[in-house]
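dumping these here so i dont lose them again. two proteins, back to back, each one seq then structure tokens. dont judge the mess
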Amino acid sequence: VFNGDWRNGKREGKGIITYSTGEKYEGEFRNGLKDGFGIETYNDGNKYIGEWKDGFATGKGMMRFSNGNLYQGDWSGSQADGLGVLYDKSGNVIFSGIWKEGKFISKLLP
């Protein structure tokens, strides 16, 4: 179910979409796709807050995981990709450095 702005039969501007699975996205749309700033809440308790492009989490953003961990950094294709930091629920750094396709690749050299 979508509640928001439409233009030429497509989602455009701000809106909220609630999927049949119960997952929810609230944010900006362009050309019918998530594009701009938005928040997506997943059924597993994870929540992404950040930038979207062409329907994917892309740019700067953070994912709060249901276990309390937090990833903050770069995203591409809805995966951690680029520079980022993964914190545990107490705020301690687990991994900090370069990520590729959702996986930690290497630490940054001092």
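---- next one ----
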Amino acid sequence: VILQGQKRFAEAADSYRQALVYRPQDTLLMQRYGDCFGHMQQFELAAAAYQRALTLDEDNPDLLARLAYMLHRLGRNAGAERALAKAIELKPGNPEWAKLLEQLRRTGQG
């Protein structure tokens, strides 16, 4: 977490990867691992980390939203819309999520 806070994302990702060897069921570690890739604009790796974490905690709205943002960055808007809609269903009231969902739905109609 310290490395991530210092914006040393590659080092932080490596630390999280090593920790996940010993704690593969830790969704928070997996989320932080994905966050590092997101900060490094490695959206495919970030999405994969979030998807793996969601296999352990499929109703985690924050993981779903993170996945949605990465899928959107990858141009996979249909998947992003599904993930974000589920996140909002589980945890309503986030204006950023609502704004992106509206944008995704408009894009899908285009």
